Amino acid sequence: MLWVVVLAALIAISVTTFWEPGRGSRRSGRTITVYGYSAMEEPLKDEVIPAFQEWYRRTHGEEVEFITSFSSSGHLFNQIRAGAPAQVAIFATEIEPTKLMEDGLITTDWRAFPDKGTFALTVAVILTRDGNPENIQSFEDLANKSVDVLLPDPTTSGGAQWAILALYGSAFLNGAGSPSNGRREPAAKLLKRVVDNAGSLPESARKALTQFGLGYGDVLLTYENEALVDISKGRDYEIVVPQSTIAIEPKVVIIDANVGEEDAELMQTFVDFLWSTN
To answer: Name one GO molecular function term (predicted).
Structure first.
C-alpha cells in the first residue's frame, strides 16, 4: 500500500555539512554535540540547552558547550551514518534510530529511557491561511482537488511520515465498513488523493513551513509545535486540529560510536535532564 511504501522509503541525499573526522575522539572541554530534526531547533536552543547549562554550572561547577545541527530526520540519519559527530540525536520517528542500532552506531537502548525515549509530545495538524478560506475541518477535506496541499518529502521528513499516518489513520477510523477489511482500501485511496494534491515536497518540516510563509500552498501538514512557533512570530495562520489525528513521539538517542568513555556520563546526564523538573 502507498503509505507503507512511503514510510519505508529513505533516499540517501548528500548534504553540505562539515565535521571532525573520527568517532569517539576526545574533545577539549565539556562539549555535547546534538543533532535534531528541524522542529526541535527552537525548543532546544531557546529553552532546553540554556536550562541544562545553568543547572550543570550550578550543580557541577563546570561550563558545557553545545554544538547543534538541525535538519530533516532523513538527512540526520545519512549524516550520522556517514560519520558526522553527533553524540545525542533527536529523531522524529523510531525508524532512523533502529537502523543506526542495526549498524552498531547506537548500543544504548533508548527504549530503556523514560517513556521509551519520548521526552516531548505534539500532534499532526493542518495549518491554514488566516480565516481558513478553504474551510478545512478534517484531513478528509484535503482530498478536494481545489486544495493545494503543502507536504514535506516523506522520504526525508519524519513530519511527513507522521502526517501520512495521520491521514491514513483518520480515514481508517472514520470510514464505513468493518475495521478488518472494509476500511483499508478507502483509506489508501484518500491518502493517494491528498498526496496527489501536494505540489513541491520540501525536504523537512521547517523548509515546508518556510515555503508556506512565502505563499506556497493553501494548507500545510505539520507539527502543532511548529505551527505555534510560527504564529508566535506574528504569522496570520489558523491551526486546525482534526477530530482524529496522531500523537507524534520523537525519540532521543545516544550515538555511542561518537562518545568516548570520558564523555559517556555527561551524555547520559543530559539525556536524563530532558525528563527532569530542573
So the answer is: molecular carrier activity
- CA 167, distance to chain mean position in Å, is 17
Q: How far is CA 83 from CA 8, 32, 92, in A?
A: 23, 16, 20
Question: pTM for this one?
Answer: 0.83
> What residue type is 207 in one-letter code?
K
> Do residues 46 and 69 share a domain?
yes
Q: Is the pLDDT of residue 178 over 60?
A: no
**What is the distance, to the nearest Å, from the Cα of residue 48 to the centroid of all Cα atoms in its chain?**
17
CA–CA dist 90, 233 (Å, integer)? 24
pLDDT, tens only, 217-237 = 999 999 999 999 899 999 999
Who contacts 154 (Cβ-Cβ below 8 Å, separation ≥6)?
Answer: 6, 7, 9, 160, 161, 164, 201
* Shared domain check, 102 and 63: yes
Mean pLDDT of 208-220: 96
- Residue 277's pLDDT band (cuts 50, 70, 90): confident
* Residue 105, in any domain of the structure: yes
What is the domain extent for residue 36?
Answer: 29-120+250-273
CA distances, 276 to each of 51, 65, 89, 92 (Å): 11, 20, 18, 21
Cell of 192: 493517494
Strands 122-129 and 247-248: antiparallel
Domain at 173, CATH number: 3.40.190.10
Cβ-contact 221, 163 below 8 angstroms: yes
Q: How confident is the model over 49-67, as pLDDT tens digits?
A: 999 999 999 999 999 999 9
Give CA–CA dist 73/9, Å, rounded: 13
| Separation between Cα atoms, residue 249 and residue 100, nearest integer Å | 18
**How many domains does the chain divide into?**
2
Residue 195 to residues 39, 143, 198, 214, Cα–Cα distance (Å): 22, 8, 5, 21
